[in-house]
Amino acid sequence: MITQRRQAGVRKMQVYKGKSVFGGIVIGRIHVYGKREKQVKCEKTPDPQAEIMRYRKASETAMEQLGRLCEKALREAGKSGAAIFEIHRMMLEDGDYRDSVESIIASQSVTAEYAVARTADNFAGMFASMEDGYMRGRAADVKDVSERLLSVLQGIEEEGIRAKEPVIIVADDLAPSETVQLDKDRVLSFVTAHGSLNSHTAILARTMGIPALVDAGLPLDETVDGMLGIVDGAGGMIYIDPDEETLTGMRKAREAEKEKIELLQTLKGRENVTLDGQSILLYANIGNIEDLAMALRNDAGGIGLFRSEFIYLERDHFPTEEEQFRIYRTVAETMGKKRVIIRTLDIGADKQCDYFQMEKEENPALGCRAIRICLTRPDIFKTQLRALFRASVYGEMAVMYPMITSLKEIRRIREIVEEVKQELDAQGMAYGNPEQGIMIETPAAAIISDLLAREVDFFSIGTNDLIQYLLAVDRQNPALDEFRDIHHPAILRMISLVVENAHKAGIWTGICGELGADPELTREFLAMGVDELSVSPGRILPLRKIILETDVSEYKKNRPKNW
Ligand code: PEP
Ligand code: MG
């Protein structure tokens, strides 16, 4: 906390400074988002029959909760989204599960909580040891449904946002899978006590275009929950229980900001052309279908990065080909003639998905992630490719492969794509011929970009990972911020090299990492000849303003080229 202003009486305003993820000012109630942590001890009971009745009652309540969730998912995500809750309901009703819990209570005279926890461990262990991949995946479900039962037994409220009106979410840190499950209509802002500017949670907040801070070091107890808060995204501040003076000042600042945003709206429909006639494409980064509205509202010329792994993170099971096909087709159709670049799944590192059942790794950022999973588990990859190639009939779709380091990988991808096409042919299923490009986000790929450029249709530079691997700084670790020099000459040289190599081979190159939205570098990227910048939707119009006001040939004359 940086200040505490004493008011008349006992009220005190608390002020914390965090790192700014996205600008904007919001005023609203604070919701402290807590993770469920349930400690279950082996406790004896003098009345096992009463415990059995408690368990049955809790099971009924959990069934009702799941019924409500099922209806909500059905409305928002269709049948496939609701399926998981159906499975959980079936598990709760399962005779073996129930018999196990009740017999542990009766034979050992223990509490319902302990019996549920034991049963969860036993059943999850049993599922995890099964041959069949689908059954193995059920281990996570049985744990999940048992957690729900424990919450009911321990009187812990259902997780989620309880407030009626939209709130400021305050959390210790949020995993990408938790963030995607939040009801976005009810989130005004995110503020986390820890977390890094480069985490996927931060990226998600940028995509949503809402004020957000990380690493704010604020308290997470009930004293803060429900209090009025102000988040000043650009200033990196959160004010808890603000005094009148601060409230008035911030309301004024919010009005001024609104005016600026309205002014930017006048740039909609304009081409992204500099004063001396150089064009650049401005596309949007998205994580799911709901972000499309933001992309269109901000006049995106296309989608430069659809992080398809969020489809996987939103579920507790592998999305089927049909589920994926419907999503990709919707995005392609919605964007019409505009290009939509869908990146194949980039699971791993900070984006963990239980049902992938990955081995624990010492260094997950250097581990089995993204294309490495796809190439070692081609069944998962092929399902996604089938859905992508089929959906590409419905628009200007392009497919992009992440974390490439070698020509060998590209050639293996090409073989798998050929197999997929042959299988679709054999089944008489229609598919298109999308552009296929790669992300340049490893130093290896950047250095051999002259060779890679001959094999693909385009490049998109992933600066988030490129910076992490080039400077050897973990993108998740805020303690390393002083060593994360995002304007480091090594980064700018690499980007320039990649653009040069792409153009020599006659392909285009974009930047889809967060650096693409850095207004201090827009002129530099224009001077390098970058063809496309793909950024959070809310960054498109501010970048357009810079582009419209730039004379690249003038800039080149006085270019502060210190790299
Ligand atoms: C990147 O690494 O720059 C990128 C765009 O991918 P992600 O942030 O999803 O790793
Ligand atoms: Mg990346």
What does this structure look like?
By secondary structure, the chain is an alpha/beta fold. Helix content is 46%, strand content 15%. It contains 20 helices and 17 strands. The strands form 2 sheets. A 9-stranded mixed sheet has the order 1-2-9-8-4-5-6-7-3. Strands 10-11-12-13-14-15-16-17 form an 8-stranded parallel barrel, surrounded by 4 helices. Strand 16, helix 18 and strand 17 form a beta-alpha-beta unit. It is globular and about 85 Å long. The two termini are 38 Å apart. The structure holds phosphoenolpyruvate (PEP) and magnesium ion.
Q: What descriptors fit this protein?
A:
8-stranded parallel barrel, 9-stranded mixed beta sheet, binds magnesium ion, globular, binds phosphoenolpyruvate, 563 residues
Task: Offer a quick outline of the entry.
With 563 residues, the protein is α/β, with parallel strands linked by helices. It is built from 20 helices and 17 strands. The two termini are 38 Å apart.
- Estimate the global geometry from the Cα principal axes: globular
| SS field, number of helical segments | 20
**Major β-sheet strand ordering:** 1-2-9-8-4-5-6-7-3
Structural class: alpha/beta
Q: What amount of the residues lies in strands?
A: 15-25%
Number of E strands:
17
What does the secondary structure layout of this molecule look like, with pairings?
Blueprint: E1 3-6, E2 12-17, E3 19-22, E4 25-33, H1 48-93, H2 95-108, H3 112-128, H4 133-153, E5 167-171, H5 176-181, E6 187-192, H6 200-208, E7 212-214, E8 228-232, E9 237-240, H7 244-265, E10 281-286, H8 291-297, E11 303-307, H9 309-313, H10 321-335, E12 339-343, H11 371-376, H12 378-391, E13 396-401, H13 407-426, E14 435-440, H14 443-447, H15 449-452, E15 458-461, H16 463-471, H17 489-504, E16 508-511, H18 522-528, E17 532-535, H19 540-548, H20 552-557
This protein binds phosphoenolpyruvate (PEP) and magnesium ion.
Magnesium ion binds at residues 402, 441, 462, 464-465.
